Amino acid sequence: MKARQIAILVLLAGCARRPPPTAVPAPAVEPGRGQVAYRFLLDPTSAELQLADQTEFVAPIPMAEFPLPRYPQTALDAKAGPAHVVVRILIGTDGRIADVRDSPREASSSGPFAGEFRDAVLRALRHWRFTPGRIEQVAGKDLDGNGQPAYREVVEYDLVPVFYDVRFDFETVGGEGRVKTSAAPP
Question: CA 75, 77, 81, 85: dihedral to nearest 10 degrees?
Answer without folding.
Answer: 20
